[in-house]
């Protein structure tokens, strides 16, 4: 274990080792949970506890007391870490980890928090996975997804393309949930893929002590073996550990801070449901395995901003972004795609300077239509581009990608309003609401 | 009618008068619908057509052609505009119009677009309303709600208080839908009320030619007569013209750009359902008529901004707002309430300068919890205030109001985290998701 010096002494005194259930008290707060190993570079005076809620907390042991509640079990597994021979009858699935709760959950089962996520960690934790595929696993980076930056999208896309070139039959990406839908949209625009690319993670909602990671990963591997050669998000479909939903990467959004079924298709429905690692039902047409050749296009303009409108917003905020050299703006407007009409002049300025402004709606559901009200018509006259039925998040990613393809305003407008990766429905359906 | 000169000549030539069904063609576009009167100050060369979708379009008649399809009916009503005597057996309901689609719909039925909305317009359009109450009606202002500014909230609150002081048994506010939920939150914080204050409007979704205004107003009057003395939003509960839902003013949000049941309770459920102008079911406890005395508190700090986080956001945007003299910020973060951790320093700056930063989530559903992940803890250490289970929009309004009560950071923090008007649930329930 990586505990040493102060923290090792603190643990040894209480006869506590990794995997034990402990109670740590400090000031007015107590934490009960399982002692985890921690990363190599963690500060010495901290220990990491996995709470029953499933979340990890780091506790500074200064002036803390510790009590052993119960010695821990050894990991209950069949697989003990030996090198696995590939079985030529099984699909080769590449698992790429990027950090986030899902990795820590996997580590939880093995009783260790490693900054580097290995095939052995994964398989030790989830030996059932060995039955359904061969694996190549790599840790691409290790960030909480709220810290994800646009450059990570490029790295992930390149890594996926490498694996496909190396013969992977499908890709599973383990990712934090906060910005999973931004990444899924980015990979959707950046990669034309002959094989499934499935992003999954863990939400570990505090309402249930058990983890959702295993079901999500198991079904994500199932989806990666399937015929659905698109970029998708595979997560719980309900509060129960039943089905997983496979969402189109450009039509999905995190909609609840803690529920395990937080990811929902917006203005669409899941392409498929999975159960026990197998497709259970298909709801939408999809691109089939091998239909597309691999094509990578990671050009991206990162000087793009997403701005939310509200009563009291001022034109200054648009001017600020123009003055700062932003190349494109996505507005999260109200209703059918509105900004206060006193903002029209500054939108016109953006247009005159060749800066595309894409309008989306804070309603999230439904489509932009700037033809209905006078305000919308004014905004259109000033150059605002309808984001149609894209979420603000997908429109943001798409604008960054579109500006990577062209800096010509008319061309960017055309890209925004052309379906590239399933992000635009041909006809908007009212039925996709809160489903 | 207010058409004159060019437009009158254009209409006269085709023997068209207000209320007639016409086809206007221009360039490659044709509009078929009912000719409406237009406002006094409209430009001469425009005519206004009510499309079958329910929406109004203004068409510049230059180089347009017009065809009469069918002469219009006279308004089919029993009430012809005479002064109505108040019936002492009926409740006195005050109807305040602020503009938006709902007013134009009412006008549609009377066949005229008046900039000033009168009791006569309303009752001529909806004579059924006469059966259930006496009315005082006033046009407070006439703006599309995307153009609503914070000062309008103050005017509306003052107008409501006047009417309550004048003996109104209930208030109905007709409002545009784009920012209805911002106004409902503002009035919730500004007014303690002994009588119901019900905000309603019309969505006029393009999927159905018929208007939703009448059902909404009729049930809003029903709610205004009820025992529920809170600020509420009364709108369609489904796509059908069946029930209306009565939402808590601080727990509601427009969730679809065009559906008539667009308003949904977030992290809550409607207080009640109404049908045929009567309460049909009660879901939540509520403040009863007369329980509160009228108290008006319209102090508001308008220098507050709502900022959405996204991968690639930079600290500059926070610094910009601090430098511009903003007094408070609401962040629409990711997940449980996160910003990239490189933003922590600038949040600390805001805190050091006494500027409250309230964290909300772009998930919308669920509650903020900055104790779970390291990023959240860093943000809290830098002074970020949890918006708990408030929507970003309600948190924005509440922060503006809180800063109107105090400029002391600790006091503002306390107000934000104290339930004032039903905006905070005592315990967050996972069950309120997409309902």
TrEMBL record, chains A, B:
<comment type="subunit">
    <text>Heterodimer of GatD and GatE.</text>
</comment>
<feature type="domain" description="Asparaginase/glutaminase C-terminal">
    <location>
        <begin position="303"/>
        <end position="415"/>
    </location>
</feature>
<dbReference type="GO" id="GO:0006412">
    <property type="term" value="P:translation"/>
</dbReference>
<dbReference type="GO" id="GO:0016740">
    <property type="term" value="F:transferase activity"/>
</dbReference>
<dbReference type="InterPro" id="IPR027474">
    <property type="entry name" value="L-asparaginase_N"/>
</dbReference>
<feature type="domain" description="L-asparaginase N-terminal">
    <location>
        <begin position="92"/>
        <end position="280"/>
    </location>
</feature>
<feature type="domain" description="GatD N-terminal">
    <location>
        <begin position="17"/>
        <end position="69"/>
    </location>
</feature>
<dbReference type="InterPro" id="IPR036152">
    <property type="entry name" value="Asp/glu_Ase-like_sf"/>
</dbReference>
<keyword id="KW-0067">ATP-binding</keyword>
<feature type="active site">
    <location>
        <position position="101"/>
    </location>
</feature>
<feature type="active site">
    <location>
        <position position="254"/>
    </location>
</feature>
<dbReference type="InterPro" id="IPR027473">
    <property type="entry name" value="L-asparaginase_C"/>
</dbReference>
<dbReference type="InterPro" id="IPR011878">
    <property type="entry name" value="GatD"/>
</dbReference>
<keyword id="KW-0648">Protein biosynthesis</keyword>
<keyword id="KW-0808">Transferase</keyword>
<comment type="similarity">
    <text>Belongs to the asparaginase 1 family. GatD subfamily.</text>
</comment>
<dbReference type="Pfam" id="PF18195">
    <property type="entry name" value="GatD_N"/>
</dbReference>
<dbReference type="GO" id="GO:0005524">
    <property type="term" value="F:ATP binding"/>
</dbReference>
<dbReference type="GO" id="GO:0006450">
    <property type="term" value="P:regulation of translational fidelity"/>
</dbReference>
<feature type="active site">
    <location>
        <position position="178"/>
    </location>
</feature>
<dbReference type="GO" id="GO:0006520">
    <property type="term" value="P:amino acid metabolic process"/>
</dbReference>
<comment type="function">
    <text>Allows the formation of correctly charged Gln-tRNA(Gln) through the transamidation of misacylated Glu-tRNA(Gln) in organisms which lack glutaminyl-tRNA synthetase. The reaction takes place in the presence of glutamine and ATP through an activated gamma-phospho-Glu-tRNA(Gln). The GatDE system is specific for glutamate and does not act on aspartate.</text>
</comment>
<feature type="active site">
    <location>
        <position position="177"/>
    </location>
</feature>
<dbReference type="InterPro" id="IPR006034">
    <property type="entry name" value="Asparaginase/glutaminase-like"/>
</dbReference>
<dbReference type="InterPro" id="IPR040919">
    <property type="entry name" value="Asparaginase_C"/>
</dbReference>
<dbReference type="InterPro" id="IPR037152">
    <property type="entry name" value="L-asparaginase_N_sf"/>
</dbReference>
<keyword id="KW-0436">Ligase</keyword>
<dbReference type="GO" id="GO:0004067">
    <property type="term" value="F:asparaginase activity"/>
</dbReference>
<dbReference type="InterPro" id="IPR006033">
    <property type="entry name" value="AsnA_fam"/>
</dbReference>
<protein>
    <recommendedName>
        <fullName>Glutamyl-tRNA(Gln) amidotransferase subunit D</fullName>
        <ecNumber>6.3.5.-</ecNumber>
    </recommendedName>
</protein>
<dbReference type="InterPro" id="IPR040918">
    <property type="entry name" value="GatD_N"/>
</dbReference>
<dbReference type="InterPro" id="IPR037222">
    <property type="entry name" value="GatD_N_sf"/>
</dbReference>
<dbReference type="Pfam" id="PF17763">
    <property type="entry name" value="Asparaginase_C"/>
</dbReference>
<keyword id="KW-0547">Nucleotide-binding</keyword>
<dbReference type="InterPro" id="IPR027475">
    <property type="entry name" value="Asparaginase/glutaminase_AS2"/>
</dbReference>
<dbReference type="Pfam" id="PF00710">
    <property type="entry name" value="Asparaginase"/>
</dbReference>
<dbReference type="GO" id="GO:0050567">
    <property type="term" value="F:glutaminyl-tRNA synthase (glutamine-hydrolyzing) activity"/>
</dbReference>
């Amino acid at each position: 274990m990586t505990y040493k010096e102060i923290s090792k002494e603190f643990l040894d005194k209480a006869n506590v080792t990794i995997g034990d259930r402990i109670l740590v008290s400090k000031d007015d707060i107590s934490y009960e949970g399982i002692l985890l190993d921690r990363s190599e570079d963690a500060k010495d005076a901290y220990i990491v506890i996995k709470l029953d809620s499933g979340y990890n907390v780091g506790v500074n042991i200064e002036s803390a007391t510790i009590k052993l509640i119960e010695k821990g079990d050894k990991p209950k597994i069949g697989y003990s870490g030996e090198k696995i021979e590939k079985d030529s009858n099984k699909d080769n699935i590449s698992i790429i980890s990027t950090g986030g709760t899902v990795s820590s959950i996997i580590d939880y089962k093995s009783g260790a928090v490693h900054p580097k996520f290995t095939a052995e960690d994964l398989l030790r934790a989830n030996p059932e996975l060995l039955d359904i595929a061969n694996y190549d696993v790599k840790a691409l980076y290790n960030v909480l997804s709220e810290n994800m930056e646009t450059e990570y999208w490029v790295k992930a896309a390149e890594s996926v393309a490498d694996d496909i070139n190396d013969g992977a039959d499908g890709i599973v990406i383990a990712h934090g949930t906060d910005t999973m839908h931004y990444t899924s949209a980015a990979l959707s625009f950046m990669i034309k893929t002959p094989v499934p690319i499935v992003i999954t993670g863990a939400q570990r909602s505090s309402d249930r002590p058990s983890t959702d990671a295993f079901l999500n990963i198991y079904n994500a591997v199932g989806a990666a073996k399937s015929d659905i050669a698109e970029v998708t998000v595979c997560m719980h479909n309900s509060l129960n550990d039943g089905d997983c939903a496979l969402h189109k990467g450009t039509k999905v959004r995190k909609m609840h801070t803690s529920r395990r079924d937080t990811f929902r298709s917006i203005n669409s429905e899941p392409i498929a449901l999975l159960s026990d690692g197998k497709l259970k039902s298909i709801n939408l047409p999809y691109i089939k395995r091998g239909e597309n050749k691999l094509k990578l296009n990671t050009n991206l303009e990162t000087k793009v901003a997403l701005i939310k409108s509200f009563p009291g917003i001022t034109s200054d905020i648009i001017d600020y972004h123009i003055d700062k050299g932003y190349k494109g703006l996505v507005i999260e407007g109200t209703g059918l795609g509105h900004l206060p009409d006193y903002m029209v002049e500054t939108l016109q300025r953006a247009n005159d300077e060749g800066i595309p402004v894409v309008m989306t709606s804070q309603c999230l559901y439904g489509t932009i239509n700037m033809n209905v009200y006078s305000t919308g018509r004014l905004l259109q006259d000033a150059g605002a581009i309808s984001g149609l039925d894209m979420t603000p998040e997908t429109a943001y990613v798409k604008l960054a990608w579109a500006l990577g393809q062209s800096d010509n305003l008319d061309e960017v407008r055309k890209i925004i309003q052309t379906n590239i990766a399933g992000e635009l429905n041909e006809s908007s359906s009212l039925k996709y609401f809160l489903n």
